[in-house]
Amino acid sequence: MMKDLYSTYEAKAKLSEILRQVRSGKTIRISHRGVPVAEVRPIDQKPTNWEDRLRQLTDQGVLQRGEAVKAKLSPLTKKSGALERFLKDRNQ
């Protein structure tokens, strides 16, 4: 039977078993005189891409993701070459 709460004495005696459970993804609590005082849990893996990082931050409550907005962008000017004219005027 797998437990999720061990006394300090049990934790010292069964460290290998506890680590085996942690490697499988389980969080183990350790108590001292019947009061839980510590947790042994898997180390969070660093995300490999932005989507994983956003998911991690959302899970932690640091970030709240909104709805995707599909905005239609339109040019500010109708005449082509506006950027070139602006840069030319700015450099004079």
Write structural notes for this entry:
The protein has 92 residues and is an alpha+beta fold. It has a domain at 5-60: YefM-like domain (YefM-like fold, 3-Layer(aba) Sandwich). It contains 4 helices and 3 strands. The chain has helices at residues 8-13, 15-23, 50-60, 82-90, and strands at residues 5-7, 28-32, 35-40. Strands 1-2-3 form a 3-stranded mixed sheet. A hairpin with a 2-residue loop joins strand 2 and strand 3. The chain is rod-shaped, with a radius of gyration of 28 Å.
Could you list some keywords that capture this structure?
4 helices, 92 residues, three-stranded mixed sheet, YefM-like fold, 38% helix, alpha+beta
Radius of gyration over alpha carbons?
Answer: 28 Å
> Can you say what the CATH homologous superfamily of the domain at 5-60 is?
YefM-like domain
Architecture (CATH level 2) name of the domain at 5-60:
3-Layer(aba) Sandwich
Q: How would you state the average pLDDT, rounded?
A: 85
Strand order, biggest sheet?
A: 1-2-3
Spatial shape: rod-shaped
Output the structural class: alpha+beta
